[in-house]
C-alpha cells in the first residue's frame, strides 16, 4: 500500500491551510484534493516517488499513479466524511466514501458486484469537518489509507433491500456497501 511520506503529509496540510486562507467556506472539492495530493508527492524530492496525475479522471481509473523503485501504485483520491454510524456496540465513527457510478449496469447486480470486486486502486481519503467555536472557524482534515482488498469480496446474491431504491451488503471485512438507484 502506498503512503505519503511525513514530508508529503506536512506539505499537504500546508497546502490545505493556504487553501482556507483564500476560501473560508467549506472543504476542498475532489479535483482540488487530487491536485494538492499530486503536488505534495512531487514536493518530496528526497523520496524518489514519481507521480502522474490524470486530471478529471474517471471513477474506475486511478486519479494518481505513483512509481517507487519500479513498482506502480494506483491511487483513488476521495474526500470522504467521518460519521457516527450505529453498530453493535453503539455509535462509532466510520469513514463514509461516495463510490462508483453504477447506472451503466442498469440494475444488474451480477455485473455491479463483479465491477466492485475488481482490484483497481487503493484509496487515499481526506475526510473534512468544519468546526466553529469560540476561537473561530477551524478546518480539520484527516488522512486515511484504504487498501482495495477491503473493498471487495461482495456476492451478487447477498444484496439486501433496505428501502424502495437502496440495497446494502457487508463484506467479510465488515465494510458496509450501499447501492442507491
Tell me about this structure:
The protein is α+β, with helices and mostly antiparallel strands and 181 residues long. Helices cover 22% and strands 36% of the residues. The chain is built from 3 helices and 12 strands, in the order ααβββββαβββββββ. The strands form 4 sheets. A 5-stranded mixed sheet has the order 1-2-3-6-9, with helices on one face. The protein has a 3-stranded antiparallel sheet with strand order 10-11-12, with no helix packed on it. A two-stranded antiparallel sheet has the order 4-5. β11 and β12 form a beta hairpin. α1 packs across α2. It starts with 5 loop residues before the first helix and ends with a strand. The mean pLDDT is 90.
pLDDT below 50 for ≥5 consecutive residues: which ranges? none
Oligomer: single chain
Strand/helix succession: HHEEEEEHEEEEEEE
Helical content, roughly? Answer: 10-25%
Rounded mean pLDDT is: 90
Structural class: alpha+beta
How big is the Rg? 18 Å
- Number of strand segments: 12
| Strand proportion | 35-45%
Q: Major sheet: order of its strands?
A: 1-2-3-6-9
Anisotropy-based shape? globular
State the end-to-end distance: 32 Å
What about the largest sheet? 5 strands, mixed
Amino acid at each position: 500500500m502506498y503512503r505519503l511520506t511525513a514530508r508529503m503529509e506536512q506539505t499537504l496540510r500546508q497546502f490545505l491551510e493556504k487553501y482556507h486562507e483564500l476560501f473560508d467556506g467549506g472543504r476542498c472539492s475532489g479535483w482540488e484534493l487530487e491536485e494538492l495530493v499530486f503536488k505534495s508527492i512531487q514536493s518530496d524530492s528526497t523520496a524518489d516517488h514519481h507521480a502522474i496525475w490524470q486530471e478529471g479522471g474517471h471513477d474506475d481509473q486511478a486519479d494518481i499513479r505513483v512509481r517507487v523503485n519500479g513498482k506502480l501504485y494506483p491511487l483513488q483520491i476521495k474526500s470522504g466524511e467521518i460519521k457516527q454510524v450505529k453498530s453493535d456496540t453503539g455509535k462509532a465513527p466510520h469513514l463514509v466514501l461516495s463510490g462508483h457510478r453504477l447506472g451503466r449496469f442498469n440494475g444488474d447486480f451480477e455485473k455491479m458486484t463483479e465491477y466492485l470486486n475488481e482490484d483497481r486502486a487503493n484509496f487515499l481519503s481526506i475526510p473534512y469537518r468544519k468546526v466553529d467555536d469560540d476561537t473561530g472557524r477551524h478546518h480539520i482534515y484527516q488522512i486515511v489509507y484504504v487498501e482495495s482488498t477491503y473493498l471487495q469480496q461482495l456476492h451478487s446474491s447477498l444484496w439486501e433491500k433496505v428501502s424502495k431504491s437502496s440495497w446494502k451488503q457487508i463484506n467479510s471485512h465488515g465494510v458496509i456497501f450501499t447501492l442507491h438507484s
